């Protein structure tokens, strides 16, 4: 694992404080969002941030293959709690259109990603099985694609579209977030450098934000 930061109560606030300075350092700022309940508070925090929103470009690491507006879509909840009320130009929001079907969504998003060389920040919420985005342990994915199709996710819905390991690694900063007591066994294994999808993406720089409730008891400071 890279540089890990234990955050007793506010790992998401700490993440936002790291994103802010990076977004102001350059012209356009590219941010890859992640799905999952663990990071929703971060998006609420970002919605209240002071930023030059016109320069922000938003991408999505993965999306579930369900209809537009479905409660299980990652973009649906992110729009509701942040982007629908944000001044980021709509043309700068680049979500995965899974409603057109898996293969077409894969092709369309690969065309979108060809327009950007490297992301400034990629956010990744790590699941209790060590998965990131829709890249799961024990599953084999094509190495020559920027976007992959997952047809047999262990979590419903089974069909998803995701950026590949290779594409996620094209980032200046990878911020990983681990929250929840159920993830204590995973954190222990990650600290022992066991192999999971979560440690296959490190980018140029990697930071891991671990909530105190995810740290194995005997490892807590």
Describe this structure in words.
The chain is α/β, with parallel strands linked by helices. It has a single domain (3-219), classed as Rossmann fold. 24% of the residues lie in helices and 23% in strands. It has six helices and ten strands. The protein has helices spanning 11-24, 40-47, 74-81, 102-113, 165-168, 184-191, and strands at residues 3-7, 29-33, 56-60, 62-64, 93-94, 119-125, 147-150, 160-163, 171-178, 205-211. It has a seven-stranded parallel β-sheet with strand order 1-10-9-6-2-3-5, with helices on one face. A three-stranded antiparallel β-sheet has the order 4-8-7. Helix 6 links the parallel strand 9 (171-178) and strand 10 (205-211). Helix 1 (11-24) packs across helix 2 (40-47).
Mean pLDDT: 90
What ranges have pLDDT less than 50 throughout 5 or more consecutive residues? Answer: none
Number of continuous helical runs:
6
User: Order of strands side by side in the largest beta sheet?
Assistant: 1-10-9-6-2-3-5
Structural class assignment: alpha/beta
Label the CATH architecture: 3-Layer(aba) Sandwich
What's a concise summary of this model?
This protein is α/β, with parallel strands linked by helices. The chain has helices at residues 11-24, 40-47, 74-81, 102-113, 165-168, 184-191, and strands spanning 3-7, 29-33, 56-60, 62-64, 93-94, 119-125, 147-150, 160-163, 171-178, 205-211. The chain has one domain (3-219): 3-Layer(aba) Sandwich (Rossmann fold).
């Amino acid at each position: 694992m890279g540089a890990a930061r234990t955050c007793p109560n506010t790992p998401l606030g700490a993440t936002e404080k790291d994103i802010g300075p990076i977004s102001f350092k350059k012209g356009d700022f590219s941010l890859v969002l992640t799905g999952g309940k663990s990071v929703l508070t971060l998006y609420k925090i970002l919605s209240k941030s002071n930023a030059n929103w016109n320069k922000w470009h938003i991408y999505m690491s993965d999306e579930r293959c369900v209809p537009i507006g479905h409660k299980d879509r990652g973009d649906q909840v992110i729009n509701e709690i942040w982007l629908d009320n944000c001044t980021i130009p709509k043309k700068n929001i680049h979500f995965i259109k899974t409603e057109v079907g898996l293969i077409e969504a894969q092709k369309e998003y690969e065309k979108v990603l060809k327009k950007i060389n490297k992301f400034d920040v990629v956010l990744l919420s790590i699941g209790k099985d060590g998965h990131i985005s829709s890249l799961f342990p024990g599953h084999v994915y094509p190495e020559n694609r920027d976007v992959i199709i997952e047809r047999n996710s262990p979590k419903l819905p089974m069909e998803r579209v995701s950026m590949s390991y290779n594409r996620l690694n094209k980032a200046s900063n990878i911020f990983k977030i681990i929250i929840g007591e159920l993830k204590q066994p995973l954190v222990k294994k990650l600290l022992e450098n066991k192999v999971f999808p979560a440690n296959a993406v490190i980018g140029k720089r990697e930071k891991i934000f671990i909530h105190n409730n995810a740290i194995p008891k005997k490892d807590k400071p």
